[in-house]
């Protein structure tokens, strides 16, 4: 029998914890059927942390059977009030274990503990509170009068068994965006974390059990995307799948649904979100927001404002100040312990992502010969972690690969525009449509931008702010469907129409 738990020590916070390493099915941790494991690496040091069990097709089937039985026998008969009680219990446990969960995020993903990881937990707490109260608010159908003797009504009912696949940039937060909404709607769930950040969700599974959720309602299946993820996508007894990650894999999840049982699909995929700065903007505030919007979480945000367009009359001033702020507030040098309050930018998630981002930087600098500014030396010789300093490319043409592709690191391109029409043309010149930001003191211009931009989210005089009450999702190749807010529950409900004949 493999080890299904290990002790982890986080000396910086004096935390020691019992970390589960198994697949979580029917409220128990168990080994994978073929003994396959995945090693998880600390991106701050490049050293392994531990290994956990990796699910295969047989394990996926076992979890689906557990989720199906829990749905048919227990969960579909559990009142919304009782579901709300379980979610409230979970909220209390998350609050109690906030530091431990945040510390696991920092250990496994490199997120600075005091800023990013604690901020993720604050968001998780807010949204769990929201969903605990939402269970009976968004499942209300309507009555439709037809003739004197006929009417119809609609019921909003859960799908049944839902699969969820989440990425590594916000490991627990992305899981909770999906999980709490699906549970509030009355579904049972099988959730797969990313290969490189499974620890926090496995630990979270212990809270699910403690909160009283019946066995099989929540199942956590760590595993490889190409194995466990693929098996979830093609399974014939999963009613809905929700995915967050790359646009490429999002497409294959949709394809898997099409090739199997046409399960309902929600996708949250990539972005190349523009920030537009007009000459009448409060420049200092705009720069502070934009710097945070690209450098926070080391730029590993699907909504990162990775394309910045600045009106030509203030362009030079903007670029000068932007570099100063990047250097002053976001530099990495010498601050290589994400548990230390001074660390503002952690490492990127893996050596593969580090190499990928480095390639983009070298392409911009050497092949495309763009103007480049970095806040400190790169590659840095002082750490084995995957640290990348804030990197700013200026005067970048629309044809540049750096301007067109999602880099997912602390790398931003800046260009200029002349007038409103010019700005809109540039902002919309992308296959993506996740988010956007506009900076101006002109109310009319701000709302014209909100009208004209083809993106699921628009921020006016701010950027990258998320609220549990507000729907989130993408236009174009950034996704299908919405999460968060009422849609975070609605997304997991389907409509049944009932026709009544009184004649
Ligand atoms: N929109 C977002 O929040 C994210 C976007 N990305 C983008 O993707 C790029 C590559 O990162 P990756 O880790 O490779 O992302 P990915 O899309 O491969 O990984 C996301 C999740 O999908 C799973 N997965 C992988 N292949 C699968 C398959 N065939 N079927 C079902 N699930 C599968 C993974 O195990 C993980 O849980 C990043 O550089 C970034 O541009 C990555 C993570 C999050
Ligand atoms: N903050 C959650 C969505 C994202 O930016 O990846």
UniProtKB/TrEMBL annotation:
Keywords in alphabetical order: NAD, Oxidoreductase
Keyword Transmembrane: no
UniProt-listed InterPro entries: Ald_DH/histidinol_DH (IPR016161), Ald_DH_C (IPR016163), Ald_DH_CS_CYS (IPR016160), Ald_DH_CS_GLU (IPR029510), Ald_DH_N (IPR016162), Aldehyde_DH_dom (IPR015590)
Family of the protein in this entry: Belongs to the aldehyde dehydrogenase family.
Any one Gene Ontology BP term: polyamine catabolic process
Protein species of origin: Saccharomyces mikatae IFO 1815
GO molecular function terms attached to this record: aldehyde dehydrogenase (NAD+) activity
Protein name, as recorded: Aldehyde dehydrogenase domain-containing protein
Gene responsible for this protein: SMKI13G2910
Highest rank taxon of the organism: Eukaryota
All copies of domain Aldehyde dehydrogenase, residue ranges: 32-498
Keyword Transmembrane helix (UniProt): no
Pfam family, one: Aldedh
Coiled coil: none
């Amino acid at each position: 029998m493999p080890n299904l738990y290990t002790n982890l020590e986080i000396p910086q916070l004096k935390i020691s914890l019992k970390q589960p390493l198994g697949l979580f099915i029917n409220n128990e941790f168990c080994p994978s059927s073929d003994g396959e494991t995945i090693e998880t690496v600390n991106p701050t040091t490049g050293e392994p942390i531990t290994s956990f069990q990796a699910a295969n097709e047989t394990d996926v089937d076992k979890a689906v059977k557990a989720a199906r039985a829990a749905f048919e026998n227990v969960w579909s008969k559990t009142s919304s009030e009782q579901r709300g009680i379980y979610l409230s219990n979970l909220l209390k446990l998350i609050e109690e274990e906030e530091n431990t969960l945040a510390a696991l995020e920092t250990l496994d993903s490199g997120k600075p503990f005091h800023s990013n990881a604690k901020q993720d937990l604050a968001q998780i707490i807010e949204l769990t509170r929201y969903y605990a109260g939402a269970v009976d608010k968004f499942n209300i159908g309507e009555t439709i009068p037809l003739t004197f003797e006929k009417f119809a009504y609609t019921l909003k009912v859960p799908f049944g068994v839902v699969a969820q696949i989440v990425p590594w940039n916000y490991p627990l937060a992305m899981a909770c965006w999906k999980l709490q909404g699906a549970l509030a709607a009355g579904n049972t769930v099988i959730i797969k974390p990313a290969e490189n950040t499974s620890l926090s969700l496995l630990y979270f599974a212990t809270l699910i059990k403690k909160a009283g959720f019946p066995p099989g309602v929540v199942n956590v299946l760590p595993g490889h995307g190409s194995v466990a993820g693929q098996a979830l996508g093609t399974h014939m007894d999963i009613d809905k799948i929700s995915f967050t990650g790359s646009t490429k894999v999002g497409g294959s999840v949709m394809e898997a649904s099409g090739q199997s049982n046409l399960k309902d699909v929600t996708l949250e995929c990539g972005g190349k979100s523009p920030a537009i700065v007009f000459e009448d903007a409060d420049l200092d505030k705009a720069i502070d927001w934009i710097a945070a919007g690209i450098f926070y979480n080391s730029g590993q945000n699907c909504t990162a404002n990775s394309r910045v367009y600045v009106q030509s009359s203030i362009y030079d001033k903007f670029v000068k100040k932007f570099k100063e702020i990047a250097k002053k507030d976001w530099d990495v040098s010498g601050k290589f312990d994400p548990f230390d309050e001074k660390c503002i930018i952690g490492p990127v998630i893996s050596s593969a992502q580090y190499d990928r981002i480095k390639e983009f930087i070298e392409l911009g600098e050497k092949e495309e010969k763009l103007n480049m500014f970095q806040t400190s030396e790169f590659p840095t010789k002082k750490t084995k972690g995957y640290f990348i300093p804030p990197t700013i490319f200026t005067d970048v043409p629309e044809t540049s690969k750096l301007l067109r592709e999602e880099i997912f690191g602390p790398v931003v391109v800046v260009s200029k525009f002349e007038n409103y029409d010019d700005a809109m043309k540039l902002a919309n010149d992308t296959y993506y449509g996740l988010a956007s930001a506009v900076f101006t003191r002109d109310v009319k211009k701000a709302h014209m931008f909100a009208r004209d931009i083809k993106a699921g989210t628009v921020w006016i005089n701010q950027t990258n702010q998320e609220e549990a009450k507000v729907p989130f999702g993408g236009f174009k190749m950034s996704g299908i469907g919405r999460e968060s807010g009422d849609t975070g529950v609605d997304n997991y409900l389907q409509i049944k129409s009932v026709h009544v004949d009184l004649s």
